[in-house]
Amino acid sequence: CCTCSRLSSTCNSNSTCTNSVGSFNCACNPGFNGDGVSCTICAEHSTNCLCDSGYSGDGINSCVNINECAQAQDNSCANSGSTCTDSDGSFTCSC
Q1: Which of 29, 39, 52, 76 has the greatest count of CB atoms below 10 A from its CB?
Q2: How many CA atoms lie within 13 A of 41 on its CB side?
Q3: CA-CA distance, 47 to 30, in Å (whole number)?
């Protein structure tokens, strides 16, 4: 009946097909999002199409750096009297 070898064209080329008793399952590979039949590539700076820490966005179309230094509540530098320097996905405090 339904196996990965017979239905290899059903799963997306960016997915993995797994056989089960009387059926099969398509699942998108890491770095892609979808139902296994349709898989969309995730944005840079995302894991499983969720933006990584220090980035904001939808995870599929884009993930952009959050400037933690723009808001004192987003960093610990202000509490210590340090200077905040934003970096890609993070920030540093310096005296």
Answers
A1: 39
A2: 5
A3: 8
What's the CA gap between 87 and 94, in Å, rounded? 13
Length of the chain: 95
Helix ranges (DSSP H) in the chain: 77-80
- Decide if pLDDT at 59 tops 70: yes
**Reported pTM:** 0.68
Sign of the alpha-carbon torsion through 62, 63, 68, 74: positive
SS3 41: strand
And the tokens for 52?
A: 């990584």
Backbone angles phi, psi at 3, to 5 degrees: -130, 165
pLDDT at 9: 66
> Do residues 75 and 84 lie in contact, with contact meaning Cβ atoms separated by under 8 Å?
yes
